[in-house]
Amino acid sequence: MMAPTPLLLLLLAVALLAALGAQEAHAAASKVTTNNKKVQVQVMYESLCPDSIRFIKDQLTPTYEALGSQRMVVEFVPYGKAATYPTDSGYLFRCQHGSSECRGNKIMACGLARLLGDNKKQVKFVNCVMSQTNPSRLNDKCVAEAGLESGEIMECVNGREGQVLLAGMGERTPSNIDFVPRVVFNGVSTTHARIQAKGQLHGSSVAA
InterPro entries per the record (predicted)? Predict the structure, then answer.
């Protein structure tokens, strides 16, 4: 695959930030092209959120695959519009789409923690989980493809480690988050609803 050009990265920045205004888009694009740094994308999402599922499957993953890990790095924050309640034994959680969503968020938090340092595997793992009929159930195929063990993931999900990891995701999520997924692109925050150029993002990537 041909390496992404500065023009492609410019198009990527403009596409993602089009809804934020030309001034912000130009500033972010300039940072990427002149400094030749990786595109930094943080995604705050929920395991059972339809918009989160569509964004990760249809936009984020294809874009990452087109740009490559040398040009783009993704930080996943599976939490969204949840709430954390400390207890004597750990934490309890309330998630927007119910307890099953909390479990799905824990599955990804546990997997992501074990894949630190390998962003390519993290993206593949999250995309696999979010592509399942029920992301709140551990899928052995997703785990195996990531080089992980299902038993280890389930021990994390059902134990204190999973609670701590999910609470940590909550600390990285703004308390006033009003729409999921929220995307932070090179330090500029937006939401899925405001990214009107999603199709352009994919088109710009595959055109490289």
Answer: Interferon-induced_GILT (IPR004911)
> Angle at which helices 160-171 and 150-158 pack, to 10 degrees?
70
Strand 72-78 versus strand 39-45 pairing type? parallel
Place of tokens 């990891």: 165
Query: 153-187, pLDDT tens digit by residue?
Result: 999 999 999 999 999 999 999 999 999 999 988 88
For the segment 81-124, what is each residue's pLDDT rounded down to a tens digit?
999 999 999 999 999 999 999 999 999 999 999 999 999 999 99
SS3 124: helix
Task: Report which residue type is found at 89.
Answer: S
Domain chopping of the chain, boundaries: 6-206
How far does CA 145 lie from the centroid of its chain?
Answer: 18
CATH node for 6-206: 3.40.30.10
Residue at 50: amino acid letter: P
CA distances from 133 to 48, 109, 137, 138 (A): 10, 19, 9, 11
Q: Which residue has the tokens 């390519």?
A: 120
- Rg of the chain over Cα atoms, rounded to whole angstroms, equals 17
